[in-house]
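queue> pop job 88
queue> type: inverse folding (structure -> sequence)
queue> payload:
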C-alpha cells in the first residue's frame, strides 16, 4: 500500500471517529437538555435544561476519555494502535478472524473477555434482576400512561426495551463467539493434529 493511500485511510478513520464522538456528545447534551427542561413542573424550565445538558456533556466527555484511555492501554499491551485494536474487536464481534497474524493475541484476549461477559450475563440471578427491572419500568410506564404523561411513558418504555434487548441478542453473540473460538483453535492447531 502506498504511503499516501495509507495516510488517507488513517485520516478518514480519524475523521469518522471524531464525527461519531461529536454526534454522541451532541445527543447526550440534547437528551440532557430535554430531560432537564421537561422534568419537574408543568412549564418548560430552560435553565434547568441547560444545567442537565452541561452535566450530560461532562459525563459523556469523562466516560469517553476513560474508555479511550482503557482501550489505548489494552492495545499497547499487544503492540497495536487503539484503532487497530478496535478493528480487531469489531471483526471478532462479527464472527471473523483477524487478517494479520500480529492481531491474533489481541483477538484471543478479546474473545476471552467477551466469553466472560456472556457467561456473567447468563447467570440466573442476572436474568432475574434484568427481568425484574424491565417489569418495574413497564409497570411505571403503564402508570404514566394512565396519568396522561405520555412523554415519561415513552421514556420508560424505551428503558424497559433496553433491558429486554440484551437477552434477545445474547444467543446470536454466543454463536458468533463460538465460531471465532473454533476458528482461533483451528488456526493455532497445526494441520493433522487433533
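queue> result:
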Amino acid at each position: 500500500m502506498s504511503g499516501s493511500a495509507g495516510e488517507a485511510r488513517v485520516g478518514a478513520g480519524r475523521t469518522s471517529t471524531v464525527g461519531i464522538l461529536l454526534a454522541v456528545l451532541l445527543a447526550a447534551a440534547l437528551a440532557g437538555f430535554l430531560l432537564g427542561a421537561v422534568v419537574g413542573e408543568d412549564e418548560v424550565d430552560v435553565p434547568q435544561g441547560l444545567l442537565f445538558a452541561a452535566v450530560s456533556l461532562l459525563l459523556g466527555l469523562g466516560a469517553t476519555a476513560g474508555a479511550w484511555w482503557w482501550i489505548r492501554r489494552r492495545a499497547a499491551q499487544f503492540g497495536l494502535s487503539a484503532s487497530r485494536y478496535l478493528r480487531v474487536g469489531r471483526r471478532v464481534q462479527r464472527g471473523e478472524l483477524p487478517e494479520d497474524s500480529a492481531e491474533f493475541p489481541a483477538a484471543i484476549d478479546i474473545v476471552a473477555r467477551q466469553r466472560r461477559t456472556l457467561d456473567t450475563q447468563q447467570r440466573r440471578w442476572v436474568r432475574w434482576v434484568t427481568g425484574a427491572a424491565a417489569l418495574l419500568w413497564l409497570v411505571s410506564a403503564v402508570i404514566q400512561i394512565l396519568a396522561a404523561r405520555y412523554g415519561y411513558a415513552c421514556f420508560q418504555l424505551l428503558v424497559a426495551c433496553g433491558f429486554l434487548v440484551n437477552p434477545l441478542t445474547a444467543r446470536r453473540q454466543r454463536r458468533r463467539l463460538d465460531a471465532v473460538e473454533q476458528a482461533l483453535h483451528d488456526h493455532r492447531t497445526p494441520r493433522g493434529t487433533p
